[in-house]
């Protein structure tokens, strides 16, 4: 078996190596995210035809749905990182989990707000306590709980490990959000993009949606890289590699 | 893996399993007890009698919408596969409200009639341009005619 993969991962989990790696990755990710995001917006708002029953109002889907996907995806990443942090006590995993929480909370918030705007135009109400809407709101509270718990400890690593525990337990909500529209009668409609069955959306509408999905993923990567770099510097303050960077900055 | 990590891994997996089982049981229980809406046939079977106000969900029957001339009052029939329920509502309906559209009405029963205080329109998860929808409707109608023709042939 090729054992360079675990070796490479092991090396990458060292703060100075990851600091440099994230520094190289970040500009590429943010650049691509911007380009793809603009292409997707142009495709969605200009090129895509109006919907047969919702007219132009459906176009909020190009923000709402990618944000909703990200709210679940980031929670998944945070959960996995929290698991690694709790079992192996790897510093980088703690930092990744805690840096993911605010980004995920932002996407969840965008999902709820855009959903509300869409709802008032199509359903006729801003909010309804149906299973999908309620479980997505619980997801936002979980994110906020993780952030609050992390900051309520004097010792950052102690805080990260405690908050990681909440993040890990909260992961049961992720399948509930996803399957809520199948398990209960809801006001919210079912999934349009399906992995196994054909999707129920015209090709001219689906490509901007998928492009936006990639753009939001890349934005998350870029944002995560930036946050992790800052957190690593703060956490490793007295170490040689940080001092080296600080000295280089002063000299440069 | 060293013993400490082994122990942490076991504890965390045990907690995860416990939480998953608990969540699965809650979801299972809520599926039977949590009703966002009742369909007309469920209401007629008496399943909603314990609620003063509840949500009624179904399709607006074609040709059943009657608007009052001098007020915002509108009456229509909500149907599901095997039941029908007359609904009365006074107010502004959402744009998507029309015949054969899924709606969710909140209100209470007044004798055999459902008096709604809020009517919401549901939309499905299908998105397509109008031209495609028209083409599909045409193809569908054509197919129906073909089928009818075939049936006629068989009868002959």
From TrEMBL, chain A:
It is found in: Cell inner membrane; Membrane. Keywords: Cell inner membrane, Cell membrane, Cytochrome c-type biogenesis, Membrane, Transmembrane, Transmembrane helix, Transport. Residues 18-188 form the Cytochrome c assembly protein domain. Its main location: membrane. It is a multi-pass membrane protein. Pfam families: Cytochrom_C_asm. InterPro entries: Cyt_c_assembly (IPR002541), Cyt_c_biogenesis_CcmC (IPR003557), Cyt_c_biogenesis_CcsA/CcmC (IPR045062). The keyword Transmembrane helix applies. The chain crosses the membrane at residues 28-48, 68-88, 95-119, 131-150, 162-181, 201-220. Required for the export of heme to the periplasm for the biogenesis of c-type cytochromes. Belongs to the CcmC/CycZ/HelC family. This is Heme exporter protein C. It comes from Dyella flagellata.
UniProtKB/TrEMBL annotation, chain B:
Residues 30-156 are extracellular. The keyword Cell membrane applies. It is found in: Cell membrane; Membrane. Residues 1-8 are cytoplasmic. Heme binds at residues 123, 127. Keywords: Cell membrane, Cytochrome c-type biogenesis, Heme, Iron, Membrane, Metal-binding, Signal-anchor, Transmembrane, Transmembrane helix. The chain crosses the membrane at residues 9-30. The keyword Transcription regulation does not apply. Its main location: membrane. It is a single-pass type II membrane protein. NCBIfam families: PRK13159.1, PRK13254.1-1, PRK13254.1-3, PRK13254.1-5. Heme chaperone required for the biogenesis of c-type cytochromes. Transiently binds heme delivered by CcmC and transfers the heme to apo-cytochromes in a process facilitated by CcmF and CcmH. Belongs to the CcmE/CycJ family. This is Cytochrome c-type biogenesis protein CcmE. The gene is ccmE1.
């Amino acid at each position: 078996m090729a054992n360079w993969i675990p070796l490479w991962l092991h090396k990458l989990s060292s703060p100075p190596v990851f600091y440099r790696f994230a520094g190289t990755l970040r500009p590429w990710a943010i650049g691509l995210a911007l380009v793809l995001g603009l292409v997707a917006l142009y495709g969605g708002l200009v090129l895509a035809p109006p919907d047969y029953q919702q007219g132009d109002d459906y176009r909020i889907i190009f923000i709402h749905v990618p944000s909703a996907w990200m709210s679940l995806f980031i929670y998944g990443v945070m959960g996995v990182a929290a698991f690694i942090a709790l079992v192996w006590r790897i510093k980088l995993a703690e930092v990744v989990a805690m840096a993911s929480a605010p980004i995920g909370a932002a996407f969840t918030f965008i999902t709820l707000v855009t959903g509300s705007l869409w709802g008032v135009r199509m359903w006729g109400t801003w909010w309804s306590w149906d299973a999908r809407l309620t479980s997505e709101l619980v997801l936002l509270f979980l994110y906020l709980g993780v952030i609050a718990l992390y900051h309520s400890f004097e010792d950052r690593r102690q805080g990260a490990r405690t908050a990681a525990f909440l993040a890990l337990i909260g992961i049961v909500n992720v399948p509930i959000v996803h399957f809520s529209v199948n398990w209960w009668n809801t006001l919210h409609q079912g999934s349009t993009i399906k992995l196994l069955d054909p999707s129920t959306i015209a090709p001219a509408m689906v490509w901007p949606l998928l492009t936006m999905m990639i753009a939001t993923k890349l934005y998350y990567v870029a944002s995560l890289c930036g946050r992790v770099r800052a957190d690593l510097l703060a956490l490793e303050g007295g170490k040689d590699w940080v001092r080296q960077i600080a000295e280089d900055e002063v000299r440069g | 893996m060293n013993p400490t990590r082994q122990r942490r891994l076991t504890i965390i997996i045990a907690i995860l399993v416990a939480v998953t089982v608990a969540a699965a049981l809650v979801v299972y229980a809520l599926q039977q007890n949590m009703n966002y809406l009742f369909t007309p046939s469920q209401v007629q079977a008496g399943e909603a009698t314990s609620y003063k106000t509840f949500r009624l969900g179904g399709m607006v029957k074609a040709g059943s919408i009657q608007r009052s001339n001098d007020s915002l009052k509108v009456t229509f029939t909500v149907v599901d596969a095997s039941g029908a329920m007359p609904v009365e509502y006074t107010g502004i309906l959402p744009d998507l409200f029309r015949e054969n559209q899924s709606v969710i009405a909140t209100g209470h029963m007044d004798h055999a009639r459902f008096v709604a205080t809020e009517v919401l329109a549901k939309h499905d998860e299908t998105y397509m341009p109008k031209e495609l929808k028209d083409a599909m409707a045409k193809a569908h109608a054509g197919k129906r005619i073909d089928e009818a023709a075939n049936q006629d042939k068989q009868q002959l």
